Amino acid sequence: MENELTALSTIFTEFYYWVTVVLMFLIHVGFCMYEVGVSRHKNQMHTLMKNTMVIPLVTITWFFFGWWIYWALPNGPWIGTSILSGTSGLEIEGAYGAALAAPWASSMAVNLGDHIYGVFWAAFLLFSWTAASIVSGAVIERIRMSAFGILAIAIGSVFWVIDASWGWHFDGWMLKILGYHDAYASGVIHAVAGGFALGILVVLGPRIGKFAQDGTPRNIGPKNPWLVTIGLFLIYTGFWGFYAACNVPIFEVGAEYGMEGVTYFTATNIYMTPTTLSGITFNFLMSLSGGLLAGYWVSKGDAFWTYSLGLAGIICASAGNDLYHPLQAMLIAMVGAYIAYKLHYWVENKFKIDDAVGAVAVHGYAGVAGLIICGFVLWGYPSSAYSVGEMWNGSNYAPINPLGMFLGAIVMFGVLGFLPGYVLAKILNGMGKLRIPHEVELAGMDYNVMEAAKADEDAFVAAEK
Predict the structure, then answer these.
(1) Element of type H or E holding 69
(2) pLDDT tens across 200-259, in order?
(3) Number of H helices, E strands in the chain
(4) DSSP SS3 for 184
(5) Which of 43, 188, 216, 353 is in the most buried spot, having the most CB atoms within 10 Å?
(6) Domain contains 455
(7) How many structural domains does the chain have?
(8) What pTM was estimated for this model as a whole?
(9) In a domain, 243, yes or no
(10) Would 64 be classed as within a structural domain?
(11) 346 domain-assigned
(12) Residue 306: which CATH number?
């Protein structure tokens, strides 16, 4: 490193992303506890192991191709030259390039000169785990482990990564052409995973006993409210890391923003637009509070939905929480929580969709609502600070606008979410590999585990005799 100040800045950035990874790990712990708490006792080990296996499956595939996709496809359907772009070193403010993200690149080996790349890679990996875990909750108690593994890889290392490359990359085509803005991933992670889960549920079908013969839905409530409560509070806690990981902690703005001769360092969001941790802390807490209040009111005090809709509130406000006033964040969160709750039960009654934990509602419907609301509230704001300067050959980005955000919501929830989820589920179902057999579902997905434990106990007792 050139000097002590450069070293301090670099090591701080490395430590900053490392802390976000540790905090986001709590999101996955929370999902495990939350889903096990909702599952019936006969399915709890299967639910736990399904979510646990997200870690190795998505991590390994993310290493081999998921990370590469993010840097390879920002130009979207008209790929252009982006696939072959690359740089010889790592610079936060520059394009890493697909070549640098390939699994055989020197950056993917033990490298004492790397102080940022690995932890930044890990932060995005934890986003991938989140996308897969959102799907996991919706499909509990009836999906085969092998089928879920395939679907987890698809959403965790392919489809959410494509939408991130299109709408979260600072050079993404959706920013430039549509004016898409999604600073903390209302659409990029949550809407796409919610749509993907809905596509699977359409094919997978409801749990046995969820609907009466006349189609009336039965409530299959949480079996362990304490696990649900602690799990969701851990997800809230992990979201602090999630928000921070969506920022760049130190970035020099000046000439790149059309301010020649000006040197100014600040934190930015993922689009390199100046922001602060202080500002998003206001908005995070206000959106959580708005979601909890609206959730308590609309669900008439139901604990499960109160906690879940607190999360929906955060997700709804996340698209614009880098620019909202705290009161806007609170009100938008309340609207998102209301929409998520009402749509969940309307879809359940109308289409007989069994979303076991409300994942499609909390992540998908709230995420879509957040994108559309952002288009109106931030209408005219720059989608990225790069639109102010003369970067990228002087091509200006479209400003944030309702139509662009609506089209972006369709891309996220429908094109990259629902459609691939539905198609993959159809293929797996056609092969007889999607859903567990009827008799196994009745006995419980932990039946073999319990039988093995009983056999061990019987053998021990016999040996004692």
Answers:
(1) helix 67-72
(2) 999 999 999 999 999 999 999 999 999 999 999 999 999 999 999 999 998 887 655 656
(3) 20, 3
(4) coil
(5) 188
(6) no
(7) 1
(8) 0.92
(9) yes
(10) yes
(11) yes
(12) 1.10.3430.10
